[in-house]
Amino acid sequence: MSLVKTAMGKVALIIGVTGQDGSFLSDLLIEKGYEVHGVLRRASTFNTERIDHIYLDSLVRDMKQERHLFLHPGDVTDSSSMLRIIQSVQPDEIYNLAGMSNTRFSFHVPEYTAEVDALGPMRVLEAIRILGLQEKTKVYQASTSELFGDTPIFPQNENTPFNPCSPHAIAKQFGFCITKNYRESYKIFAVNGILFNHESERRGENFVSRKITLSAARIAQGKQEKLYLGNLNAERDWGYAKDYVECMWRMLQHNKPEDFVIATGVSHSVRELCKLAFEEAGIDLEFEGDGMDEVGIDVKTGRILIEVDPMYFRPTDVQKLVGSPMKAKNILGWNPDKTSFQQLVHIMVKNDMELVKNGKK
Ligand code: NAP
Ligand code: G4F
Fold first, then answer.
1. Is the CB–ligand 1 distance for residue 77 below 6 Å?
2. Which protein residue's CA is at the shortest distance from atom 31 of ligand 1?
3. Which of 116, 168, 197, 261 maximizes ligand 2 atoms within 8 Å of its Cβ, making it the mutation to test the pocket?
4. Tell me: the pLDDT tens digits for 185-216?
5. Angle, to 10 degrees, between the axis of helix 208-220 and the axis of helix 341-357?
6. Residue 222, class by beta-carbon neighbours within 10 Å (0-12 exposed, 13-18 middle, 19+ buried)?
């Protein structure tokens, strides 16, 4: 395996390569001619499904042909693995996407969440400093709109004060601050992408968007009776992950290290997402009732398809987030309107209808 930088391309290391964003970013960087390295953490089952189309390809390919994706066993909770991998890869760019990314679950594992989301970024930055790579290696840190938390300010931008309200968001605030601190203290090109919710056909099934699109597809094809959800009033600024990873890359190509909000500028409620997803699946849905008694009804048959289950509520929830993408639009030339909310839901439902039809979900 060659770890040598190819003449034409740069070397990137993606920590969190097996996740939604890591897989789209791998596709993008390979397309741009990068040699891509990823950190693969240990799991009890295979966890490379989202990158199998690139990784398995490269395994079965004639070894004389060029390989583009190399995986390294490691974990952001383990400093020695971060040091070893960064030393051997000598990346031009590191994208730290590793995250305990499930807000609700972070209430159950707050200490582990801090290990991954707070200390993880610090271990990556420390490795760069210890290895003397400050001049060479640029770092992208996956920060989040959850940092704004329960804010009264709309829309949120790079100057909006943080008010995180979950262990996940609080740990991510440490990650944000340490990235800024290493940029200022050690002159590392380290930036925060404050990304608002972004979804796709590769989104994990326990996030609300995918839970809804998959359930809509299953219910429409008679494979599921009902969908149980939590806070239907929550509003999020939902964009398409494929568009967002492009902006991560743009941030590292910019001539100076700066933090950017990435968002569409439009928010929708969970209820609206349900209506649209079910419509895409061929079901006209209507909501009736209030609070815990609210239900989603199939207008044609009168059947109750959605119910509220208190199990999915959080000790504290962020009610509404909507971001201003103006800085990224003006400085990075990023297009926040590339994929609309309607197009995003269409892509996800279409994908899930196919998966269900083929017995894959
Ligand atoms: P995701 O699908 O949950 O992917 C997270 C990635 O991190 C996976 O590859 C996961 O590995 C890896 N990971 C988790 N713990 C790790 C550890 N201890 N060591 C090494 N790798 C670890 O999340 P995503 O949607 O792609 O998001 C990427 C990042 O952006 C996350 O940090 C997330 O918090 C942040 N973010 C996401 C959004 C969003 O709406 N998607 C918005 C703002 C910020 P496995 O595959 O083995 O689990
Ligand atoms: O899809 P969610 O679980 O995403 P959440 O909590 O906003 O976090 C995601 O986006 C963040 C960026 O803002 C990232 F930092 C984070 O890593 C992750 O990618 O929930 C969205 C909303 C919440 O208000 C939640 O209470 O949907 C509400 N919701 C209602 N019913 C539900 C459900 N969420 C989930 N997961 N499951 C439900 O049944």
1. yes
2. 99
3. 197
4. 999 999 999 999 999 999 999 999 999 999 99
5. 50
6. exposed
